[in-house]
């Protein structure tokens, strides 16, 4: 299902920002999870017919859902997938295996139900919002100047915030944007250092020479803008793209609405990094669904101290790895809710 309509009543609850300054202010006052509902989940896990902790990370997922939804028992009945699409001036630098027109072509495919994310969303029982953002007007090539000015940045951020449906039980952000592994790698290099090549991979399928070109483009771009990058949001505006900015907006909107977030691959996690770099703790409501084949993703997760749930050799984006992990989360909750306790089943506890 493609859901691009807003509930009018819910619209009023959705904050939007007039400026990056207002956004930075909001990042200083983020709601925390509810420790009581998290503890209630852990308490039931201890009563279920299994040795304590033997469902491993499935137990962690259930407590995380309860803590961030702020309810016990937590729910998985209204998951939402948001796929944002944007185009990149940097794609002109020969850094992708595909031409930029594929972004728009894939958006049409999402709208018709033909992409991997459509089938995975059906499997999860999730609403899918497909949000193309100004595809005919790519963000500027960061070799020439900042990818976005402040107005363009705030507009894309607000679009991401508005896409999050109030009352969702879980958000899976995803993206589509030819050239965006270069933008994501540039954001990581600018914020976390290392050498550019360490953040570069094959993306949608370039060969070794292409990867070297990508690293050089990132080195030049980040060197050019270094003095203007004071925090994560600056890096996102100067090096990113509208779909990456919108993902960051959706992650923040979810935090403000007590909706836990299942992150996807390298580009999605780079969007999250921008929030984290501006406000440590901003990703406390996020789990990482999988580690992608893009080598920078593993480095990035190590920096964020986030352990991915899955490692499936995915390198697709669209939110696919997050949605597969969300299916796992639903399964974890089913165990939690449906299993018998030791007392109910008459099983000895020791
Ligand atoms: O999510 C990932 O880790 C991931 C890794 C490699 C490629 N992608 C997808 O491939 C596209 C970007 O690849 P590229 O080579 O054009 O930078 C973009 O649409 C992403 O969704 C996504
Ligand atoms: C076909 C295609 C599908 C994608 N989905 C996400 N990124 C993509 C890149 C390409 C090239």
From TrEMBL:
It is an enzyme of class 2 (transferase). The active site is at residue 318. This is Nicotinate-nucleotide--dimethylbenzimidazole phosphoribosyltransferase. InterPro entries: Nict_dMeBzImd_PRibTrfase, Nict_dMeBzImd_PRibTrfase_bact, Nict_dMeBzImd_PRibTrfase_N, Nict_dMeBzImd_PRibTrfase_sf. It comes from the Bacteria. CDD domains: DMB-PRT_CobT. The lineage of its organism: Bacteria, Pseudomonadati, Pseudomonadota, Alphaproteobacteria, Hyphomicrobiales. One of its GO terms (molecular function) is nicotinate-nucleotide-dimethylbenzimidazole phosphoribosyltransferase activity. Gene3D superfamilies: 1.10.1610.10, 3.40.50.10210. The keyword Phosphoprotein does not apply. The keyword Disulfide bond does not apply. Catalyzes the synthesis of alpha-ribazole-5'-phosphate from nicotinate mononucleotide (NAMN) and 5,6-dimethylbenzimidazole (DMB).
């Amino acid at each position: 299902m493609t859901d691009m309509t807003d509930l009018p009543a819910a619209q009023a609850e959705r904050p939007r920002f007039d400026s990056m300054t207002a956004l930075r202010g909001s990042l200083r006052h983020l709601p925390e999870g509810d420790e009581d509902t998290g503890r209630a989940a852990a308490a039931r896990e201890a009563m279920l017919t299994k040795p304590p902790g033997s469902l491993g990370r499935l137990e962690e997922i259930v407590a995380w859902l309860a803590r961030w939804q702020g309810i016990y028992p937590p729910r998985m009945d209204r998951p939402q997938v948001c796929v944002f699409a944007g185009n990149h001036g940097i794609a002109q630098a020969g850094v992708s295996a595909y031409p930029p027109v594929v972004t728009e072509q894939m958006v049409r495919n999402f709208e018709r139900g033909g992409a991997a994310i459509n089938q995975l969303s059906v499997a999860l029982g999730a609403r899918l919002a497909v949000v193309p953002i100004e595809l005919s007007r790519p963000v500027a090539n960061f070799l020439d100047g900042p990818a976005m000015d402040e107005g363009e940045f705030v507009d894309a951020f607000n679009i991401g915030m508005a896409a999050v449906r109030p009352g969702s039980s879980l958000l899976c952000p995803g993206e589509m944007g030819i050239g965006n592994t270069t933008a994501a790698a540039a954001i990581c290099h600018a914020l976390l250092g290392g050498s550019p090549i360490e953040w570069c991979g094959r993306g949608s399928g370039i060969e070794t020479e292409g990867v070297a070109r990508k690293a050089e483009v990132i080195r030049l771009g980040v060197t050019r803008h270094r003095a203007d990058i004071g925090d994560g949001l600056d890096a996102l505006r100067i090096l990113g793209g509208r779909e990456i900015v919108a993902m960051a907006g959706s992650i923040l909107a979810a935090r403000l609405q007590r909706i836990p977030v299942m992150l996807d691959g390298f580009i999605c996690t780079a969007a999250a990094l921008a929030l984290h770099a501006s406000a440590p703790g901003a990703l406390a409501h996020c789990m990482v669904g999988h580690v992608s084949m893009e080598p920078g993703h593993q480095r990035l997760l190590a920096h964020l101290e986030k352990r991915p749930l899955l490692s499936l050799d995915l390198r697709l984006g669209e939110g696919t790895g997050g949605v597969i992990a969300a299916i796992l989360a639903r399964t974890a909750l089913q165990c939690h809710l449906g299993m018998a306790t030791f007392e109910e089943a008459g099983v000895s506890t020791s």
